[in-house]
Amino acid sequence: MAEHMAERVAVVTGAASGIGSACVAALLNEGATVVGVDIVETAPVDRFHPSVCDVSDESAVRGLFAEIARQHGRLDAIVNVAGIQRAARVDLADVSDWDAQLAVNVRSCFLLAKYGLELLKGADNGAIVNVASVAGIKGTAGVTGYSASKGGVLAFTRSLAHEFAPHGIRVNAVSPGWTDTAFNGPVINELGGQSELDELVRTTVPLGRQGRPAEVAAAAVFLAGEAASYITGQNLVVDGGLSS
Predict the structure, then answer these.
(1) Per-residue pLDDT averaged across 60-71, rounded?
(2) How confident is the model at residue 15 (pLDDT cuts 50, 70, 90)?
(3) Cα separation, 196 vs 173, whole angstroms
(4) E-assigned strands of the chain?
(5) 75 strand-pairing partners
(6) 235-238, strands of its sheet edge to edge
(7) Strand runs (DSSP E) across 57-124, as ranges?
(8) Which residues contact 24 (CB under 8 A, 6 or more apart)?
(9) Dihedral (C-alpha) 108, 113, 116, 117: value to the nearest 10 degrees?
(10) Pairing between strand 48-52 and 33-38?
(11) Residues 204/140, Cβ–Cβ less than 8 Å
(12) How far apart are CA 131 and CA 93, in angstroms?
């Protein structure tokens, strides 16, 4: 087992499934201690400490970091994966869905940075990795709210990188393209079903397939680790060439 992050403590949001779960597994494999945050309860295992928390709720996030300080006394990396996706034409979309996507997808990144800062200041090579999306770069009909939220994540990442650089904290983003997780259910339904998605991927993704959560996690762990110590304010696109 590699131990490139041995003795480091990382927070991963959206840790119970999909890309978040893959990030947890990859960080554990690198030797890190991981606080896995989700609204779904999961079981603890060696070096994995689950925490139930609504990352769009300010008081809950403040309490999360107070508990991390008490239990671990340090923090080296935050990987923001938590997100929701709603799909609908603008004229049919619910305002509540728009607001929820901005709260969970963007506000959570702000809150994790705000309340994680003091602990990250004590890290050597502290890092934040925000999982955005190709939807924040490339226009797609039917997911305007999701696209707006992920574009916000990218803009926030670039500005936060400048703000946190004097503290020695790097801030980067990872933008997945089509990734084989249940998370994409709403947009698959909007497209008309799995067969339509398969055809879309075949015709628009140069590598001809969806990505795997572990492939996105590998990019996130790279940006959180020592090998990326001179990289900040960047967006690493993991999309099989879709946006090229």
Answers:
(1) 98
(2) very high
(3) 29
(4) 9-13, 33-38, 48-52, 77-80, 126-131, 169-176, 235-238
(5) none
(6) 48-52, 33-38, 9-13, 77-80, 126-131, 169-176, 235-238
(7) 77-80
(8) 12, 15, 34, 36, 48
(9) -170
(10) parallel
(11) no
(12) 24
Residue type, 242: L
What distances in angstroms separate CA 8 from CA 40, 130, 182, 234, one per listed residue?
A: 24, 18, 30, 22
What are the b/e assignments for 215-235, b being 16+ CB within 10 Å? bbbbbbbbbbbeebeeebbbb
Q: Sort strands 235-238 and 169-176 into parallel, antiparallel or unpaired.
A: parallel
Judge if pTM exceeds 0.85.
yes
Helices 213-224 & 18-29, crossing angle to 10 degrees? 50
Report in angstroms the alpha-carbon separations of 208 from 88, 191, 241, 244.
26, 18, 9, 14
Catalytic-role residue among 146, 156, 178, 222: 146
19 neighbors 176 (Cβ within 8 angstroms):
yes
Per mean pLDDT, which range of 25-29, 159-163, 185-189, 236-240 is the poorest?
Answer: 185-189
Dist. CA 125–CA 228, nearest whole Å: 9
Is 148:164 a contact under the CB 8 Å cutoff? no
- pLDDT band of residue 149 (cuts 50, 70, 90) is very high
Q: Is 115 a catalytic residue?
A: no
Q: How many angstroms separate the CA atoms of 221 and 161, rounded?
A: 17
